[in-house]
Model the fold of this input.
Amino acid sequence: MAIVMRSGEIRRYDANERLNHWAVALLFILLAASGLAFFHPAFWFLSALLGGGNWARILHPFLGVLMFVLFVIMAMRYWTDNKIQPYDREWSKRLPDFIENRDHDLPAIDKYNIGQKWVFWITVITMGLMIISGIVIWRPYFADAFAIDAIRIAAVVHAISAFILILAIIVHIYAGVFWVAGALRAMTRGTVSHNWARHHHPLWYRRMRGGRNVEQPPQNL
Done:
């Protein structure tokens, strides 16, 4: 389906997608902050974001469930687009060129590059591990149903998964804000320019234009 806007831009994300993304992002910030507060006393001041220690302990697991549900909705939307394809493997061989901004002749890719797909699948895995381990250690509702060894293992899994997810999101933010100019605009305004789409995601650009050649000058500019 071609999504060419009157301005000549191309819609990359609709309003519902952007709302879902920013809701997950806000919940992630609150959960990461409160999780760090529980992890080490040096970060205890971050519990203030959820109203202090007691409220942070109460709200953290409930917000975690909400974030997981919203992320599942997001993941279902982007599941197909994030399947790794043969051209992604070819693109990954040229990753040093991409890092050094020598990206004028990289292999054509679809909506996401291999780095974005890695972040997606890391998030899927860590989110799954965190919701499972979080339920096991959730007092007073579920923890009493598990042996103490299971709770200890779950606590370690939860902390490691959270650490990996935080690192992945840092990379995601850096790439979206500083590395690839124009990427942040896609999730704030929902649209990207023809030149941006044609340069960074030519296969996706071709699909959005109904299969027309990516070198064809865009209309309605």
Remarks:
- The beta strands are 10-11, 191-192.
- The radius of gyration is 20 Å.
